[in-house]
Write a structure and sequence with these properties.
A: 135 residues, alpha+beta, OB fold (Dihydrolipoamide Acetyltransferase, E2P), five-stranded mixed barrel, 18% helix, B: alpha+beta, 3 helices, 11 strands, globular
Chain lengths: 135, 256
C-alpha cells in the first residue's frame, strides 16, 4: 500500500514534467475541443508509442456516449515514474479530461485521469495543452 | 599536559583530513573512466534534456526523469528566405508521427534517454527513441567526399585533447531539427564537441550549419547526466499502436 501510494505521489509530482512527443499534438488533437468523459475503464493498451485507455462513458461537454479512447504517456516514461501496467484497471471508474481527436471520432488525448476518491493524475505531456480545470 | 593537548589536536586534524579525502573520492567525485588509448570513456546510459525547440533553453528535469539536464538554446533562428518559406509551410507532414526515423539532431532532443558504447576506434550512440543507433568511427578516417544521403547522416570523430569532436554530413534533408518542426536541408553539417568534466556529466555542444536554410551557424550547449546504476534503455516500437496517424484514428476492437 505504501509502495502504491508513494508510486502515486511520484506520478503526481512528476507528471507535470512528463514529456512525450512522438507526435505533434496539433496534428492529431484539437485544443479547442475539450472532452470530459466519466465512465468505466473497459481496456488499457500498455503499448508504444502511447498507452491507450478506453472508457465506456459519456462526455459531459456534448453529452455524447461512446467507448472513448484516450492516448496517454508512453510505457517507458510511465515506468520510469513508477507507474506500471496495473495502475489503471479494467472496471475502475474514472473521469478523463482531454481533447478531442481531429477526426471527430470518440478519441482524445488523455490530459487528466481522476478517480472517484479524488486522486487525480496528469497523463499527457508538459508540452500538450492542459485541460482548463487543471490550469 | 600541553604536549598531550597538541598531540590530540594534531590527531584530530589528521583524522579530519583523511575523512575529507575519503569522502571526496566517493560519489560524484569518482574519476572519469578512460579508454585503452587514455581518452575519456563516454560509455553509459545518459539522460539528456528534452529539447523540443532548438531555439529555446531547457533546464531541470531530463527526458528520462533524472535531474540536472540543461540546454542553452540558439535563440532566434537566422532563416534564409528559403528556410523561412520552408519553416512557414502549412500542414507539414510529421514524419516522426508516421514512425520514420527522427534524424540526427532531433534524436538527441527526444523525451527518452540514450546510451554510448565507447571503444578507442568508435563511439556507438543508441537512442531509446525508435531504438535507433549511430556509428561514429574515431580511427582517423576522413569524412567521405560525397556520402549517400541518410536519415542520420555520416559521421567521423577525432580528439582535441580530451574533447571528442564529431562531424556529421550527408543528410537526406527529410528530418527536422526538433519537434517544433524547424527544418533543415540536405546541406546540414553538424559539429558536436563532447567532454566528460566529471563522472556524472557530459558537456555537449552542438553546432548546426545549413547555408541553404540558415544564414549562420546555430549552437546549443547541453548537459547530459549519467543515469543511476541499474537504469537501462527501454524497448520502443513506434508502429506498435500508432492509432491516430495524421489525425485519423483507427477504431480499437472495443470501439467497433
Amino acid at each position: 500500500m505504501t509502495k502504491k501510494l508513494s508510486g502515486l505521489l511520484l506520478f503526481m509530482l512528476l507528471a507535470a514534467t512528463a514529456a512525450y512527443a512522438h507526435h505533434s499534438f496539433a496534428a492529431e488533437f484539437d485544443r479547442q475541443k475539450p472532452v470530459k468523459v466519466t465512465g468505466k475503464i473497459v481496456k488499457v493498451e500498455w503499448m508504444n508509442p502511447h498507452i491507450w485507455i478506453y472508457v465506456d462513458g459519456k462526455d459531459e461537454v456534448t453529452g455524447r456516449a461512446a467507448v472513448w479512447g484516450f492516448s496517454a504517456g508512453p510505457p517507458a516514461t510511465l515506468s520510469r515514474r513508477g507507474i506500471n501496467k496495473d495502475f489503471l484497471k479494467k472496471g475502475d471508474t474514472v473521469k478523463i479530461d482531454g481533447f478531442l481527436a481531429k477526426d471527430g471520432s470518440p478519441n482524445g488525448s488523455g490530459g487528466t485521469v481522476t478517480f472517484p476518491d479524488g486522486r487525480s493524475v496528469f497523463t499527457a505531456s508538459a508540452e500538450d495543452p492542459v485541460p482548463a480545470n487543471k490550469k | 599536559m600541553k604536549k598531550n593537548f597538541v598531540l590530540l589536536l594534531a590527531g584530530v586534524v589528521i583524522l579530519s583530513v583523511v575523512a575529507i579525502s575519503i569522502a571526496a573520492q566517493s560519489g560524484s567525485a569518482k574519476a572519469v573512466p578512460r579508454l585503452a588509448n587514455g581518452k575519456p570513456d563516454f560509455t553509459g546510459v545518459w539522460d539528456h534534456p528534452r529539447v523540443g525547440d532548438v531555439a529555446k533553453d531547457a533546464n531541470g528535469k531530463c527526458a528520462g526523469e533524472t535531474n540536472g539536464c540543461k540546454n542553452t538554446g540558439a535563440g532566434d533562428l537566422p532563416f534564409t528566405s528559403l528556410g523561412k518559406a520552408e519553416n512557414e509551410k502549412k500542414d507539414k507532414w510529421d514524419y516522426g508521427a508516421h514512425c520514420m526515423p527522427w534524424g540526427y539532431v532531433r534524436s538527441y532532443g527526444t523525451p527518452y534517454p540514450h546510451a554510448y558504447v565507447h571503444h578507442p576506434d568508435r563511439l556507438v550512440v543508441v537512442w531509446e527513441q525508435d531504438n535507433a543507433y549511430h556509428m561514429i568511427p574515431t580511427d582517423g578516417r576522413p569524412l567521405p567526399k560525397d556520402p549517400e544521403p541518410t536519415w542520420r547522416g555520416t559521421s567521423v570523430g577525432h580528439w582535441e585533447g580530451d574533447t571528442l569532436v564529431i562531424e556529421t554530413v550527408g543528410f537526406n534533408g527529410r528530418t527536422w531539427l526538433d519537434t517544433a518542426e524547424h527544418p533543415h536541408s540536405d546541406q546540414l553539417r553538424v559539429v558536436e564537441r563532447m567532454t566528460r568534466p566529471d563522472y556524472d556529466h557530459i558537456n555537449y555542444e552542438v553546432t548546426m550549419e545549413d547555408p541553404k536554410f540558415y544564414s549562420k551557424p546555430m549552437k546549443n550547449l547541453r548537459t547530459f547526466v549519467l543515469m543511476k546504476p541499474g537504469q537501462e534503455l527501454y524497448e520502443y516500437s513506434c508502429a506498435e499502436n500508432n492509432r491516430c496517424e495524421s489525425g485519423n484514428c483507427t477504431p480499437a476492437d472495443v470501439q467497433k
